[in-house]
Amino acid sequence: MEALLKVAKSSDSSEEPLIPHSPVPETPGAQRISVIEDEQSEAHLSSPEDVLKILKSKIPTSTLLEALKFLDPASLENGNFNIIIPSSLAAQILHALITTTICDHWASLGMEHDPKPSYHLPSSQTPQAMLLRCVKSPSGIGTLLAYLRSLLPSQTPPQGKSASSDKGILIQDTLSLLSRLLSPSDLILHLLTDIRRFIDHEVRKQLLWQETISLLASGKVLSISAESLRYTELSVGTSPHSWISDGKLYAAWLGKNISSMASQFSIDDDQAWKYLGAFISRTLSIGQTDQVVNEILHTLLFRKDRPGTENFINLLKFLRQHDQKRILESILRCLERAYLVNLLENEDKIADASISNVSIILSLITRDVVIMKETLKTWLISGIGGSINSVYMRRSLLATFASDPELESLSQIFTKSIDIFGDKLSIKHSPITAQEANAQVILLTAGYLHRLETTNLSSLVQASSYLSAISNRLGAASTRSRFLGMIVGTSLSKLTDKPESRMKFDLAEMESDEASWFLRLSDTQDQVRTITDLEPPHTLSSTETVKKKALKFKHEKMQESSAKPTASKILPLEDSDESNDDGLIPYQKPDADASDSDEDPTLIQRSKPIPPVYIRDLLTYLRDVDNYDRYILGISTAPSLIRRKSGFGSELDEHIRDLALTLTSLHDKYDVPKFQEYRLQSLTTLVVARPLVLGPWIANAFFHIDLSQSQRSSLLVALGLGARELAGYREEDSKAMGLPQVSADASFPSQRLPPRLEIQYDPASKHTPTEVISRNIARNSLEPLALNAVDTLSGPNALKVRTFSSRMEVEKKKREQEQLRRAKSIPKDLHRILFEAFFRPLTSGFSLMMYSTSSYNGNNPFFSPHLLSLFIQTTNLIISTIGPSSVNQLTITSDVLTLLMSLHNSAAATEPTVLSAILSLFLAILDINIASGSSGEERLVNEFAEQVMEMREWVGGIFERTPKGDDQVRMLAAGIMVKLGEVMNRYQGRLFGMNAEFSF
């Protein structure tokens, strides 16, 4: 047997090799060998049975090449065997071909070279191209996946135990073959063309196409590839073939293939479009719909030549209604990211151009696809759903409907929006964000109706539904609801009534900038241009990102050898002659000098990066994850650089969103001891520098961007600490942030644990800064009650030198002096900033999430105990920082009580951390209303009596059911009951004209 086997000839052999030597180095640990016979005559293949017979035996490379030429579909002649057509013989040949090629002939076939993307062309006669054409079929792909799965163990290997060297290399080679087979952007088009060309019966065509869909449009490739990479200890992104295990990159590849199919199909070929519709429906199940749709838009519509406009519309028609709605929602998200995400209010020209571009695409959809048109109407009217999150998208949609010659769509939108706007239940229970969106739609629609047909608008305004809507709005309990009613009434009266009879409200809030912005909406008019005027967005498509990543990988591989520094080792000289050392007295080894290591020339780094001085340089440092020195320097210097740039120039304003997103998505790749502290300080500094921009951005990112639990937690903590720092509590909160402090035992470092272990064993590190500050607020609220109780139980005050409660007066005076000192450094419009940029976006986003999701929140990530408790604690910090002096106190109380009513009976409220956070928030809103005086207490008893009494009964039940060991919950519940009792007693006393306490 040994005589029949021989290692593949090296490059210096006298015989010329079949494939040039690959420049890619071999994987260490094992060598690939090729099985070649010494001497064998050339095989004569006349039937597929002969091919199967020789593939099952040990064959030389030349014989394998003859077999590939025989099986190559590109050189198929009449009557020859076609390996693409499914059969039992074809399945056996495919299995033998894959196992034989990968195991024995991988290196000799030159598969380590990157083949040309056009391997499916008949003109390409390389061994790689012939092999890939042979397995380019549903049966071939299925056999390849089955073989790859058979190489994986039935059970996951223990952590730290890697795969065997031979099997690991075999899995990597199989992944490489699969990646190269799937690399063309028109692979699925060729698969469908082959099916329709070589398969006769329609039923067999459908079955084979369903098999293709189950292989490529589902998660089979993703799951098997990801498991294979994990087994071989290859992380996603470190191999050029790992894109088939990355959900986003694989979805982008699917979108490219769908675009290729749609651009090549004839409009009249209904059967082909049905095949494509079935493929797209299954593609939506992998969870990366936005990536697929984004690639389709970039390929068919955003290119300058726009080759597939009609094909794109035809593609939507052949989808099921449910899939049409999912695609439409994804289209809106992609359009908003491409055109509308970075618009500012003062950039009117840029906003008009972007809105016009979005309207062009939406007009194509609403013109030809009726279901999508009706769905867009429903989303506009309700103000919820469809990912319509900005006024710019609403302007684009209404401009699309206004371009319709018939005004029926605008009239329907206006009438139904007015009905929802004036519904009492909607006013009371709908999220404020949805009510604001509804008001914007009414104002924009009224402006279009007024310009297009004034009489139609006048008749709609005179209807009883409109009059009752304005009346219900003006009589609402919420100030925000009343404000929206006044805005709509004033704006529509300005359009339809005479100047002397127009509705007008002489209130301060109607003179604000926000009211002026709302009133200008009715004068907004956006134009819808033709498809030839569509401008592509200035963003890269997903396929270009894939190519850049692949090029980056190759560049890193080329520089890998030169990047590693080499240093010579200095070895001590040993004297073997020990006879001369008998009379020598050994001395103790001297202490090592710490400065010696710095003077070693081999250890000096002469290319140290300098700290960044510009925000764009900081972004470059933070994104350079592979460079340790630049990455660490960027993280450590980010807080100070942001603080310096906050009041200098406009550089921070230009990059603030990119910087915030980069800081949020950072990962602790190098286990930096203070990584979380640096990131939290940077985010907090950004919030303090631009609160009106970062506050709404953080709230939107928290609810709408795909983030992990830790990243969402960082956003909430940064928002809460930023609010506290704006109010002047930076020094008091530095302990909660974990900033380094000089302690008494700082001179004894040997008695302290290393920083990484100290974080794990420090009891204070188990609580987030937000939780610590929230507990301090609750303790300050309950401490006077406890001291008064001690005074009552310890005897009459006349027998005491000093009462316990008198200490609180001293502490109160100190706090008042501290507040006067902080008032000099806080912004004048602090209450407005905290309410508009922090409180309202956060609570509106949560209420909108609660309103739009199902009643069962078991799989809702926002209802995880840690994240929900942190959200409640952040809300507690914000309202406590706002205090009792805000003009929006009524709205704050209403929103907080609504939030508590939606949470106190939920399943998540049974968690100890969530329960304590809910009680602390209820206690904080009570303290704020009590501190605001008798008006706040009367507001609790009169306007919010129903919510307060229900919460009081719930708190009483919590106090009775909580075991005595849980002191924190029982203390909070008892404090709430006592404070509510005092509020009721004082209110009863005022009713009877008495200042003393009164009880029945």
UniProtKB/TrEMBL annotation:
Gene3D superfamilies: Telomere length regulation protein 2, C-terminal domain (1.25.40.720). InterPro entries: TEL2_C_sf, TEL2_Regulation, Telomere_length_regulation_dom. One of its GO terms (cellular component) is cytosol. Residues 1-30, 553-606 are annotated as: Disordered. Coiled coil: none annotated. One of its GO terms (molecular function) is Hsp90 protein binding. One of its GO terms (biological process) is 'de novo' cotranslational protein folding. Residues 612-723 form the Telomere length regulation protein conserved domain. Belongs to the TEL2 family. This is Telomere length regulation protein conserved domain-containing protein. It comes from Arthroderma benhamiae (strain ATCC MYA-4681 / CBS 112371) (Trichophyton mentagrophytes).
